[in-house]
Amino acid sequence: MLARYKYLGLLIFPLVILFLSWLEADTRFSRDLSGFFPSDLLSKKERVLYFLGNEDKENKLSQRQKKDLASAIVRSAQRLPLPDGTLLGGFSPNIELFLYTWAKNRTNFSAFASKSNRIGILGLSPEKIKLLESKAGATIDRNFDIYNFNIQYKIALILYKELLSSGLNAKDAYYALFDIPSNSNDWERLETFYAELHKKVIPEN
Fold it and tell me: Does the pTM of the predicted model rise above 0.85?
């Protein structure tokens, strides 16, 4: 009987060594990843948007692009006050989530969208980009800079806030910014996306 346990131990011991080696390698791999993408470099809001991007199976952005998008949105959100009484999907709007749904709704997170004469992750029209250039007295590089998430959101928000200041509500300003026909259901689709995200990340009181 003792001999049987002795040989059983000889069989189990290599398996234990193999498991511990795998565990060490897996832990080392995780450490390597965390070193490349250190989470403490992202704010809490950026981490939320980043994880939402990872959960969305239709989001084909790279990990780095998801982080860049989250950072661009959080920085941009600080500069966007919506009109009083604005609701999105029945909820008081969280600006970060609102701007996140722009990228989802406009191009489904296509960083280099160029279909139907639309440019970048927000699908801005060349006419709107030219409009901002004329206002700013500057030229935006069409080969690289225009696809930068920060620049895309800066352009969009400068024009969007102008539309809001002219008296348009959030929906009409959105339609005017992206040249969307008034009979489109684009805003309703955006509100649906927003409501889903709001319920997921903002707990009810």
Answer: no
